[in-house]
């Protein structure tokens, strides 16, 4: 029997959940093609939802969250992967209803795993994690819709968060003029250091929800928050502009009107990094290891399993700044 450490969420009474580091057995992991010794994981908003008992994310407890994992194959039943291969697994059911990356071992289908690109060490891959993959997918979608640096300023909402902060760094690297919208005025200097040319107060983006249209302001946007802010962003895109929508921290529902679409020809682009075909994920990871390789040293803090509960509280309260890398020594 191989024992390993994992963060486990248990329901102690109706809707009261406890979070603790426990010893688990490899034999108790679900069936799968690959047994992976996880070296690094990362914290995403969805992990915090799972850790707090959100049944939309995780139906059954006890459960180990962690939608991201990077590690080394220890056993493989398929020809495509050999013992010793370094792999990245993000999304699909990992950490939702399949024991996830907040444990030292995972067992998953081979169809969830990609070999890490040469230029991207496991640690760097997990500093990016699902947040980085999502930021890259958002920027890719905007570019596919014809957005270029010459078009004007690109707004990033929820800019101090995981997806938002990486989007700021990536857009800057690609030569865009970047406006970072945040509810954390005190992080303005940090956002400027990451590459924001302009800091926008989140409260400003919450005004004018009842107005049919707003002044044309943004060539494009990466929206990580949803809710009324997304509605206002759609109404303040320049003619032909696009917004990539990926998040819901400000709410899942948003009002809508056809006016921005039929008067300014704007585009609302949905981004899903979870169920995306593996081949698309792999091409995005390749890009992040080469032409979109980012220096993220400024936005990452490293924790071990025992320190995760504090980070989970912080991300749930909207107080997260940057990315949390989880080390599974
Ligand atoms: P984080 O918590 O790291 O970032 C979210 C940010 O949103 C916060 O830091 C804060 O930034 C802002 N925010 C928090 N609460 C509110 C609020 N009430 N109103 C407005 N803004 C708020 O989360 P992640 O970066 O991990 O994820 C961001 C969103 O994207 C989440 O909703 C997540 O579920 C979603 N997501 C979707 C994916 C997909 O495939 N579609 C993949 C990954 C994430 P600030 O203080 O700077 O405003």
Short description:
With 329 residues, the protein is of the alpha/beta class. The protein is 27% helix and 29% strand.
What can you see in these coordinates?
The protein is of the alpha/beta class and 329 residues long. It folds into two domains: 3-116 and 296-327, Alpha-Beta Complex (Quinone Oxidoreductase, Chain A, domain 1), CATH 3.90.180; 130-270, Rossmann fold. 27% of the residues lie in helices and 29% in strands. The chain is built from nine helices and 15 strands. The chain has helices at residues 45-51, 122-144, 162-173, 188-194, 202-205, 227-235, 259-264, 278-289, 308-316, and strands at 3-13, 16-25, 34-43, 68-76, 86-90, 105-108, 113-115, 153-156, 177-182, 198-201, 218-223, 237-245, 267-270, 300-304, 323-327. The strands form three sheets. Strands 3, 4, 5, 6, 7, 14 and 15 form a seven-stranded mixed sheet that branches. Strand 1 (3-13) and strand 2 form a beta hairpin. Helix 1 (45-51) packs across helix 9, helix 2 (122-144) packs across helix 3 and helix 2 crosses helix 8 (278-289). The protein is globular, with a radius of gyration of 20 Å. The model has no long low-confidence stretch (mean pLDDT 97). The chain binds NADPH dihydro-nicotinamide-adenine-dinucleotide phosphate. NADPH dihydro-nicotinamide-adenine-dinucleotide phosphate is lined by residues 44-46, 130-131, 134, 158-164, 182-184, 202, 224-225, 246-250, 271-274, 315, 318, 320.
